[in-house]
Each structure stands twice: as C-alpha cells, then as structure tokens.
Design goal:
297 residues; 8-stranded parallel sheet; binds pterin-6-yl-methyl-monophosphate; alpha/beta; TIM Barrel
C-alpha cells in the first residue's frame, strides 16, 4: 500500500522545492549540526569532528532530509570566529557526511566557507545574512549553482537585538527580503534556486516571531519556497513560560518546536530547520496529511 508520503506529491500544497533538493512530497526537515563551542542550545556538544560526524549520521538516520553544518554561532551577542577556524570545524564534517550519502547544507556567512563546503559535497548554502555579510557570497553561490537559503537579517549577532524595531513586521521583512532578491538577481543567482527565510529570532522580539509565523502566507507571495528556523528559540521558551515563571530552557522546547513545525508546514513552509528531527518529521507528516484531506473537503 502506498504511504501518505509516496502518494502525496502531485496533490501536495507544499511549494515546489528548488532544483537539487529532495522532494518527499511534504515539508522537508533539516537537522541542525552546530560544530561550535557556543551555540545557544547545543554549543559544545558536537564541537569535536568525530562527534559531529556521528551526530550528522544520527540525524540522517532519524530521517533528516538535509543536515545543516555550521561552524560559527549566530546566537545574540556571539563573537565571530576566524575563517580558518570555521573551515576547520565544518569542511571535514561536510566531506564525511556527503561521502556517506547525506544531503548536506553549510550554514555560513562567508563565501570562502560556502565555496569549500560545496567542493566538499554540500548541496545547499544556508546564509543567515542573505548575502549582506559577505559581498562575495552571491557570486559564489551563483557560480556554484547550488540552492541558496537567504534569511532576513539586519545586523551581526553581537548587535542584532538593537535592530528589532519594525513598523509592521511582516510588511517590513517582506520588503527587505524583496530587496535581497533584487540584489541576488543582479549578481546572477538563479531565482529558481533561492529559498527565503523570515529569520525568526534574528533582530526579532517574540511578538515579531509570532507575527511572522502567522504571516507566512504573505511572505509566500514573494514567490519562493520558505524555510522556517524556529527550533528551541526564545519565542518558544517565552510562550511556554507559566505565568510569572521564567522562560523554559532550550533543551525543553522540542515538543513545542514540533508543534511549530506543523504550523509552519500547514502554512506552506517548504522546510523546517530543527534540532530534534524525529519529532518534527512526525509533525510535518501530520501537516501533510491534514493539508491533503483539507484539500478534499
Ligand atoms: N537560525 C540559526 C542558525 N541558522 N539558518 C536559517 N536558515 N534559519 C534560522 O532561523 C537559523 C539558521 C540559529 O539557531 P541555532 O543556533 O540553533 O542553529
């Protein structure tokens, strides 16, 4: 009997993924692999190359469609690392996972890291600055010919919280991503390979994150697949807090993250980026079934 996933592709309401990525007929699940000592929720856990490779294989075994390898923390206040350090953290991991048949993306702001990662087998470049941090990034991904995630970004991590001011957040983020698309087109990036991301938690307060999640439909009008990175972020911890209690810590936000993955998938996200792959994979499968049957009534 065909499974929901194998039966769904033609009828699925999820946007068409860019060329060169898996097409399971549901929202993709990208597993997070931070090879850093200081990421906000998993910093230091996979900082060693061997541990990181094992974790990447584990994420793939749990069903991650893509494993996203990052070597520089982007948490608020984080300090940048030098290029050599970022290359040393990421490239051996990318190479080994790609060799094992895993679909790998590289999470970087820097064109030389993106280039080296693609040479090592990465199939996607995930840039939280949408090309704003490194002027050479757009040309690099244009010539590499790989899919490119361009996230909404206003400022480097150490100062991003100061830039969390919006007139109307969905309209402002849509306009700023529109400007990013314009620049990427000028640099020769194939529009069919561009994925957009509202950048939850980046120069955003919790109310901005929730408004953007609720407004994903508007962002889709830009005409590109959307990636949503909500996993364990502060707006989730704040929403879980009991009245009067503090935020729930990052390690206790995975069930809520999976709920947000389902909401994002129902709203048409093409990919969710998460720490706990299993939970979000189940969640996006439920979303696919829901959307499928909603479409029949
Ligand atoms: N968030 C983080 C890192 N990389 N990439 C994309 N495309 N979207 C995100 O929201 C995003 C990202 C920060 O989270 P982490 O420290 O848990 O990786």
């Amino acid at each position: 009997m065909p499974t929901m996933e194998s039966a769904a592709p033609e009828r699925s309401r999820t946007p068409t993924p860019p060329e060169g990525l898996p097409r399971p007929g549901r929202c993709l699940v990208m597993g997070i692999l931070n090879v850093t000592p200081d990421s906000f929720s998993d910093g230091g856990v996979y900082a060693d190359t061997r541990q990181a490779i094992d974790r990447g294989l584990e994420l793939a075994g749990q069903g991650a469609d893509i494993v996203d390898v990052g070597g520089e923390s982007t948490r608020p206040g984080a300090r940048p690392v030098c290029l050599d350090e970022e290359l040393a953290r990421t490239i051996p991991v990318v190479r080994e996972l790609a060799r094992a048949g895993v679909w790998v993306s590289v999470d970087t702001l820097h064109a030389p890291v993106a280039r080296a990662a693609v040479e090592a087998g990465a199939r996607l470049v995930n840039d939280v600055s949408g090309g704003l941090a490194d002027p050479a990034m757009a040309r690099t991904v244009a010539s590499a010919g790989v899919p490119y995630v361009a996230m909404h970004w206003r400022a480097p991590s150490r100062e991003m919280d100061r830039h969390a001011r919006y007139g109307e957040v969905v309209a402002d983020v849509t306009a700023e991503l529109g400007a990013v698309l314009h620049r990427l087109a000028e640099e020769g990036v194939d529009p069919a390979r561009i994925v957009l991301d509202p950048g939850l938690g980046f120069s955003k307060r919790p109310e901005h994150d929730w408004t953007l999640l609720a407004g994903l439909g508007s962002l889709r009008k830009l005409g590109h697949p959307l990636l949503v990175g909500a996993s364990r972020k502060r707006f989730i911890g704040a929403a879980l807090a009991e009245r009067g209690a503090g935020e729930v810590p990052p390690g206790e936000r995975d069930v809520a993250t999976a709920a947000v993955s389902a909401l994002a998938a129902v709203a048409g996200a093409f990919c969710v980026r998460v720490h706990d792959v299993r939970a979000s994979l189940d969640a996006v499968r439920m979303a696919a079934a829901y959307v499928e049957f909603r479409g029949r009534t």
